[in-house]
Amino acid sequence: MQKFKYILPLLMTMAMLSCNKEEGFRTDRKDYDRYLAEKPIKTTSKYFELWDNKIKTDSLQLLSLGNVAGEYNRFFQGTGDIKYLKMAEQSLQKAVDIAAVGKASYFRALARNYISQHRFKEALTLAQQAEKMGSGVNDTQALFFDVHMELGNYEIANSYLDSISNMSDFGYLIRLAKWNDHKGDLETAIRFMEKARAKAESSKNNGMLLWSYTNLADFYGHAGRIEESYRLYLKALQLDPKNAYAKKGIAWIVYSHERNGTEALRILDSILKKHQSPEYYLLKAEIAEFLGNEMLKLESLDDYYKKVQNFAYGDMYNAYNVDFYINMKVEEKAMKLAKKEVENRPTPESYGLLAYSYLKKGENKKALEIVKNHIEGKTFEPAVLSQAAEIYKASGNHGKVEELKKELMGAIYELGPLKETQILSL
């Protein structure tokens, strides 16, 4: 927490300088309306059918297996339908099984698929198998960084980051940005992500451009640079008019910055007509609560619950489900899932969920113990710090509460309007 003594005054000064400009900024629905009317993504193409047919007629078509997996992954990104991520897994598993040459690349691709499924320990095993193959060393080192960051092994992750150091490499720059964001140094994270954006723009690679635009837009939002964030989401939509993540980013700006819940719901509903990711229903429930629409909130929570019953999701929604069960006053289920999430992914965020579950069960001492051992000084995520602040308050540690309250007041945009009252009452 010590570093906040230096970062917080800087952030507050920056916020005051940009405050008037950002407070006056408003989105314009004419900027994004045409993207909301986009038709759902097509889940086939002539190339996909060609590759798919080759798989069916010749099981040794390795190139086709890789291409089909890539298309399935694109379909998943575009629709949020979990079946496509699972089908990509099947194609990659088959490729791993039959490949005699280039096996390491298929191990890495399958590991990334597992990361998407939150199967982090299995992804680590695959990364280790890729390492044994000996080829694509830098790609494997980068994969190790990604997996260890997800598992909360931050010092190990940092050692892998050092091993791929190359300031002219896009992959290194985005990971360096992620590392600095993890450390709580948002200004440096933005600087490296801006360098990554410049690399992407010079390469004219659409995938790299989309990644840098949407991630930099997120960072700008966290830094209070709302208009810049908005412009980048629009640039992402110019590249990919169906991009649900960028539309959600604009919906968040409309909701959290402008406090226009009705328009935010309109944007969100346009996404939900074409995209199936369950978390969008949780955001819809939050906005409905902000608007005082209890019926819509309950309907949205019900829609979320029905979606996540799909067995194919596995552990992907454990963290969301802990929060869901806590809010629904089903503390025992929340506790069980929080413990599972800590086992799968022992990060400060997972421990935050566990500590918060103990708090809601009235076990304040256990909650505080977890905060001290696994959260304090180990994360700068506002959502986790707000949970920690509640636990400190319940334990009577008012000094810590005031310290965190000051930090959290600077993160209201990131946390959302509903959290503002809660933070003010700490």
Keywords:
disordered N terminus; 25 helices; Serine Threonine Protein Phosphatase 5, Tetratricopeptide repeat; single chain; TPR-like_helical_dom_sf; mainly alpha; TPR repeat; 426 residues
Summarize the SSE layout with pairings.
Elements: H1 4-24, H2 29-36, H3 46-57, H4 62-79, H5 82-98, H6 103-116, H7 120-133, H8 137-151, H9 154-163, H10 170-182, H11 186-203, H12 206-222, H13 226-239, H14 244-257, H15 261-272, H16 279-291, H17 294-307, H18 318-327, H19 331-344, H20 348-360, H21 364-374, H22 382-394, H23 398-409, H24 412-415, H25 417-424
Helix pairs in contact: 3-4, 4-5, 5-6, 6-7, 6-8, 7-8, 8-9, 10-11, 11-12, 12-13, 12-14, 13-14, 14-15, 15-16, 16-17, 18-19, 18-20, 19-20, 20-21, 20-22, 21-22, 22-23
As for the CATH topology of the domain at 317-426, it is Serine Threonine Protein Phosphatase 5, Tetratricopeptide repeat
- Number of helices, counting only DSSP H or I runs of 4 residues or more: 25
Distance between the first and last residues' Cα: 18 Å
CATH architecture of the domain at 317-426: Alpha Horseshoe
Uncertain parts:
1-18
For the record, what is the CATH homologous superfamily label of the domain at 317-426? Tetratricopeptide repeat domain
What would you report as the Rg, rounded to the nearest angstrom? 22 Å
Kindly report the oligomeric state of this protein: single chain
* Mean of all residue-level pLDDT scores: 91
Structural class call reads: mainly alpha
Elements, N to C (H/E): HHHHHHHHHHHHHHHHHHHHHHHHH
- Strand tally is 0
Q: What is the CATH class of the domain at 317-426? A: Mainly Alpha
Strand content: under 5%
Q: Biggest β-sheet: count, sense, barrel?
A: none
What spatial form do the alpha-carbon principal axes imply?
Answer: globular
Keywords: TPR repeat
Protein name: Tetratricopeptide repeat protein
Organism: Flagellimonas iocasae
TPR repeats: 210-243
